[in-house]
Amino acid sequence: MKDKIVDLVSRNIRLLKNFSYLSVIQLINILIPLIIYPYLIKVLGEDTYGNVIYAQTIIGYIVIIINFGFNITATKEVSVNRDNAENLSEIISAVYAIKSFLTLLSFGILLIYMSLSFEGSQNQLLLLFTFSLCLNELLFPVWYFQGIEEMKFITIITLVGRIIFFVAIFLFVKEKSHYLRIPLINGFCALVTALISLYIIFVKNGLTLILPKFSRVFKFFKDAIPIFVSEFSVKTYLGTNKLILGQLSGMRYVAYYDLAEKIITAIKVPIKIAGQVILPKISLDKDINFIHKFFKYSFFFNVTSMLLVLFFGKYFILFLGGEGMLPSLDVLKILALTIPIVAMSSIFGLQLLIPIGYINYFSKSVILSAILYIILVFGLYIFNEINLMSLSFVNVLVELFGCLILYFGCRKYRLI
């Protein structure tokens, strides 16, 4: 038994290292916002904090546009060409060219939206400042470091940025009128981490930016479209709930939903980490048996996590937001049902269908899920039943629907 364990560890040492690094990253990204959450709620209040989250939700759609699916497609390309510096330089150059164009296009769309918006100038200014979050998506090449499986760089860079953010929030956000400083702090941290990562790529690793061939750029753009469509569709049924609540119920309800979502996101961290770690491995060796073994452990872990939230969710709410945020509890219990569902969807889609080559099927499944979301929300609107609870149930139903489609796809292509 001991020899088997040693052999298993030795054969997957890189996976274990990357899992450790990504665990640190996700803990940093989840814990720091949760730690400062009680402080921001106390200083800003539910309504103002809801405005900040509302702006971040809108910019979240732009982040998806700028990312354009490269977190998967570019990671795969870098993984395959990791030992060829010339190809890596061309890949990086092509991806940055596309991202730069999409950033300018998105900023133009945002300016048009703000000019047509009937909201107050302060809310428009908040939205403009929050756009600075896009600097991280434009410049920080997570896809490169994932592709070469050097997660330690992402870990160090992320740690630096989050520490700066943590300290700056307590130093510069001390009253409700300081809410505009939050996106500016985020933007500054994004710029710092981006500059560090660019130094590593172009100075330490010796890669260069070149003028990529149009055919190469077009190919990258075309290959990423299915992933972009799927990720934008996912954003539709995961992020739109807060926009709807902000428009129809008030920013206080955005804060309620956001707290429950933050807790569930923290619980789902292992799912995300595992997917990021094993994607390069599966892209290279197409080891389906490895995924089958992984599925068993993943399902058990995530069912246990769901039960933990169902039984102890109240204490999570009280610890983070106090009694004033208890309306989040029912939302939290409903969204907890998505934990094992999302885990299975991740395996069926991101670890089986995409690496094996069935990207189009994956994209179609997500688009269908987004269409179902729109239909359900429209039905709730017609019958005047839009509220925290109903939108939370819609989220669960859509996630379950998407998971089933992915499952049948894996059966269709004999992957399970």
Record keyword descriptors for this entry.
416 residues, Polysaccharide transporter, PST family, mainly alpha, membrane, transmembrane helix, 17 helices, transmembrane
What does it look like?
- The chain is mostly helical and 416 residues long.
- The chain has one domain.
- 85% of the residues lie in helices and 0% in strands.
- The two termini are 28 Å apart.
- The N terminus is likely disordered.
- Cα-to-Cα separation, first versus last residue: 28 Å
Structural class: mainly alpha
Number of domains as seen in the coordinates: 1
If you average the pLDDT, what whole number results?
82
- What's the shape? globular
Rg calculated over all Cα atoms: 21 Å
The run of helices and strands is: HHHHHHHHHHHHHHHHH
**Main β-sheet, in a few words?**
none
Give the helix proportion (percent range): over 70%
Show unreliable segments: 1-9
Strand content of the residues, in percent? under 5%
User: Counting H and I runs of at least 4 residues, what is the number of helices?
Assistant: 17
- What is the count of β-strands? 0
Give the secondary structure arrangement, pairings included.
Layout: H1 2-11, H2 13-67, H3 70-80, H4 85-116, H5 121-130, H6 134-139, H7 142-147, H8 151-172, H9 181-204, H10 214-248, H11 251-267, H12 269-285, H13 288-321, H14 328-335, H15 338-356, H16 359-382, H17 388-412
Helix pairs in contact: 2-4, 2-5, 2-8, 2-10, 2-11, 2-12, 3-4, 3-10, 3-12, 4-10, 8-9, 10-11, 10-16, 10-17, 11-13, 11-14, 12-15, 13-14, 13-15, 14-17, 15-16, 15-17, 16-17
Brief rundown of the structure:
This protein is mainly α.
